[in-house]
Amino acid sequence: MTMKRYELIIIGAGPAGLSAAIEAAAEGMQVIVFDENQRPGGQLFKQIHKFFGSKQHRARERGFKIGEDLLKQAEDYGVEVKLNATVIGLFENKTISVKIANRIEHYSAYNIIVAAGASEKMIPFPGWTLPGVIGAGAAQTMMNIEGVKPGNEVLMVGSGNVGLVVGYQLIQAGCNLKAVVDASPKIGGYGVHASKLSRTGVPFYTSHTIKMVKGDKKVEKALISEVDENWQHIAGSEKELNVDTVCLAVGLSPMAKLLEMAGCQMESSAGNLIPVCDEYGKTSVEGIYAAGDVAGIEEASAAMIEGKIAAVSILKKLCYLEQVEFETRFPAYKDSLEELRQGMFGIGEGSWDYPSQSREGYPLSKSLLKKGYLETEEIKQFPGVVKEKSAGVVPVVECTQNIPCNPCQDICPNDCIKVEGDIVTLPELDKDLNCSGCELCVSGCPGQAVFLIDPDFSSDHSAVSFPYEFSPLPELGSKGKALDRSGKIVGEAEIIRINKAKINDKTAVLTIKVKDEIVDQARFFKE
Fold this sequence. Notes:
globular; 7-stranded antiparallel β-sheet; 28 strands; alpha/beta; 7-stranded mixed β-sheet; FAD/NAD(P)-binding domain; 3 domains
């Protein structure tokens, strides 16, 4: 049996695996990456939304563009990537067996990083095997990779960030998202993601789950029902929705079987089995590391840093890095990772039992947690809102949860928006507000939570500018309806400006003219 040997083997060519490969190969290490898919990049190429975090986390960049960049770097550094290569065995002596085409090949390495990612969870219910019941990841693949519309009338099951982000992308693809349901009494993902759906008119049903799907040869209807505190269906609470697609976003399972096979110590976390790792990603088996979702479900930004941390540890161990350089690079990566893990959704802080108030002492919106939108009066108490009427254009930052993100501060040329301290601090407006109305904050916010208000547009009309990522764009001068944060029509509106500047990266900024009395409510436009 021929055994090919490398200094570093990486299993998985997603964000964690590619980041690790680049970090190692940049120092001259011999690296090979195996991935079972037809193309590298993992989930990144499905992700057309803008990332959160700070500039060092590549905030405001879209996932697929980050993927393109990682692939280019890997190619430039000579990383060998084998695709359609399924690793079927990982052994304690740091050898692997790989199925490539119809043959089995064997490799060994001084160190192995497992960055195999995660798979979608499914939930069984009557009718769940009918065509039209799909996972959120499958829907993303259909839309963003294959260019196929998953369905026309869609129900989303699950309100975590995956469900909310994919729900928004379904609308972008031309689907009618009928509702989002979640058995939890509170929405599981970021409030800004939920708000993007709500203002288009999508209703949320918390404490609800899918009971069954009806249809002859495909999905035709979905029956949802309310659940009690014990997750049991409440009789008589059923609602029937006419849908042709049910999209499931009910969680992810780390693909950690290879690590278990290698004899790594495992532990239970959030119902999943994951490897026990130290701060470098090192498992209990010498020379075997884990990075990304296989070591615990987080965002892609965190996965990329975890890959770098594992690689830099190996570089130091094999003397590719001097101690001084390691002591510079590792703490920087560690601090960057800890930044992403802060806030009410972060590891160690986030839980289903959310706090009743933000770090700064502002009461969290119960409406946002239950219905997906902020009430008009609720938003006025937060620091991203001017409390008194002022002349000229002013930003309104409707970001009310402590999530790791600060691009609104970085992109403003006049320093109007501040995110003081760490990146989970609520944005606030500078006391010497001097907004030029450039709209960069509106297009740059990954959560689409920044708006511009011009209360002095005319004698009885105000102007509202908001982000818009749907196609086709309405035409200049189009007249229609202004929708509030819940998607309810609150008055007449006219498109008076469309900003499609290249710097906005495909996020258009629409400005509508509305009556003065609804300027604090109008947040969307419908023809």
